[in-house]
Amino acid sequence: MTDSSGQVFYKFRSSTFATGQNLKHFENAGTSHAITVQIPQRKPDVVVAFKTYSNQNLMYRLTGDFNNVHIEQKLASKLGYEKPILHGLAFLGIAARCVLKTYGGNDADAFKAMNVRFSKPVIPGQTLETEMWLQPGINFSRVIFQTRCKETGQLCITNAFMEIHKDK
After folding, report:
1. DSSP string covering 90-133, please?
2. Over the stretch 112-128, which tens digit does the pLDDT of each residue have?
3. Other Cβ atoms closer than 10 A to 114
4. Pick the catalytic residue: 39, 45, 71, 88?
5. CA 167 to CA 71: how far, in whole Å?
6. Is residue 167 flagged as an active site residue?
7. In terms of CB atoms within 10 Å, which end of the chain has fewer, N or C?
8. Quick check: 89 and 70 in contact, CB under 8 A?
9. Residue 60 gets which letter from DSSP?
10. Across the chain, which distance is largest between two alpha carbons, in Å?
11. What are phi and psi for residue 26, nearest 5 degrees?
């Protein structure tokens, strides 16, 4: 997103995946712009837990995501999930809040950038543990993080970092 002079304010990158779909008709799906994030070889500096609500998937329909995999048991089962799954936006928001609250003073102005990969689904009501490693920099700090579902032990957010302005 730019202003009239061409000054860049935001860069949005995204990718899409289709669970259980056969997409052989795509000869060239494009170039990946994924950033590989290496987890430090030490225990996390901080771990923050957050229990999701059992009805949180219903609240997130207000974002405009009306994919029925978030509410219909029959469709969730057909796609291989034990129950309807939580919106990615919901558990992304939880992880982002954990990082920003821990290292950015819970100040939205401290946020600079973020990168994540959704790696596993989350079932509403599960507990998410966000593991964080601080990497201080000159103008901003980078917090490498990953989010794990406590009940399954599986990582649901990987390849993740948040950059936080130092002057905030």
Report:
1. HHHHHHHHHHHHHHSTT-GGGEEEEEEEE-S---TT-EEEEEEE
2. 999 999 999 999 999 99
3. 17
4. 88
5. 42
6. no
7. N
8. no
9. G
10. 51
11. -90, 110
Q: Report pLDDT digits (tens) over 92-111.
A: 999 999 999 999 999 999 99
Q: Known catalytic residue: 20?
A: no
Cα dihedral 165, 3, 65, 97, rounded to 10, equals 10
Cβ-in-10-Å burial (0-12, 13-18, 19+) of 14 comes to exposed
Active site residue 70: yes
Distance CA 42, CA 133 (A): 9
The active-site residue out of 39, 45, 65, 71 is 65
Q: Which residues pair with 133 in a beta bridge?
A: 144
Contact 137, 166 (CB under 8 A): yes
